[in-house]
Amino acid sequence: MSIDQSALQIGREETWTGFEQKPPLYRRVPLNLLKFAKNKPLGAFGGALVLFLILMALSGGGLVAVINEDVPSIAPYRFDEYTLGQDRLKGPSAGHPFGTDQLGRDVFSRLLYGAGVSITIGVGVFLLSSTLSTSLTLISGYYVTSVDLILQRLVEIFGVLPDLVILISLMAIYGANPATFIITLGVLNGINTSRVLRSVIIGLRGQPFIEAAKSIGASDKRILRHYILPNVFFLIIIGATGGISGAIAAEAGLAIIGFGLNPGFPTWGTMLNASREYLRVAPWLAIAPAIMLAFTIFGFRLLGDALRDVLDPRLRGSR
Predict the structure, then answer these.
(1) DSSP one-letter code for 100
(2) pLDDT reported for residue 120
(3) Residue 66 — very low, low, confident or very high, per pLDDT cuts 50/70/90?
(4) Are 309 and 40 in contact (CB under 8 A)?
(5) How far apart are CA 85 and CA 164, in angstroms?
(6) Which of the following CATH numbers is that of domain 40-66+98-311: 3.40.109.10, 2.60.270.50, 3.40.50.1000, 1.10.3720.10?
(7) Which is it for the CA torsion 253, 255, 257, 259, positive or negative?
(8) How far apart are CA 179 and CA 291, in angstroms?
(9) First-to-final CA distance of the chain
(10) Has residue 258 got a pLDDT over 60?
């Protein structure tokens, strides 16, 4: 075989693709999760707590209380099921693992239903606040014009007003239901967090890659979608953990002081508020929802700190 034929044969056998082949998605996801758990063990623990809460919300039937529709549930009883005058303030037993409340309702079932209501409130507040803050800051931060001047004055006005007073007032007018709470707190959080995103976007406007995109004729819509938004998306993802846990904690805090949702909704906050009169005779009424709230906030905080270290370019690679 001649030299030319040998070279041709080698070229056929060794086909150069020009780039390294990535493993398929079903292999990358477990590997990335294992890497995350190894580098951020506390974040992985927080993620496990969040996953446990989500499983409780999906299987506990909490949407029954929110949308008034029957959905599959692993709870042994409905959240409002009781027999008048029976099983009141019973301690933990085989039939009621976490005991019963002052009306004879199963505390364990109400915890499962409450997980669904709490997750619905937290996710709803986050989605509304993120959409509002991102929309406001993409417009006002990139186009620093009279529009930005007007929007920032509105943000300052809402920033001066006390959020707690606004929230309690609107819930008193429109009803103490999840929809009113989600809309009010979502708008207030969106306005408050828009300041942080605006400062980041203003800093990105003068970066060389933005000027290069403008020089080749990229439209403002393309720059916002392909250059600005991806560079602030990590802030939105990180804010999800703090936003969801903050909304759940805000609902519980309002309920404890007597300004929460309607007592008919089985939230952990309303359970804590109802347990105050029975702390001496039935402490389990407060212990169970308090532990769930603590684990929820703790898990979201740990996960948020780990995601910040992983996703934030300024902190990437930190331990």
Answers:
(1) B
(2) 86
(3) low
(4) yes
(5) 38
(6) 1.10.3720.10
(7) positive
(8) 26
(9) 58
(10) yes
Taking alpha carbons only, the member of 53, 56, 50, 132 closest to residue 307 is 50
Lowest mean pLDDT among 27-31, 105-109, 143-147, 228-232: 143-147
* Alpha helices by DSSP H, 257-314: 268-275, 284-311
Domain ranges of the chain: 40-66+98-311
Residue 284 structure tokens: 């389990």
pLDDT at 268 over 70: yes
- Report the percent of the chain where pLDDT is more than 90: 3
Amino acid at 51: L
In angstroms, rounded to a whole number, what is the distance separating the alpha carbons of residues 86 and 17? 74
Q: For residue 34, which of 42, 44, 48, 24 has the smallest C-alpha distance?
A: 44
- Cα 296 to Cα 301: distance, rounded to the nearest angstrom: 9
State phi, psi for 97 to the nearest 5 degrees: -55, -35
Coil, helix or strand at residue 215: helix
Q: Which residues contact 108 (CB under 8 A, 6 or more apart)?
A: 75, 76, 96, 97, 98, 288
Q: What is the mean pLDDT of the chain?
A: 79
- pLDDT value at residue 18: 46
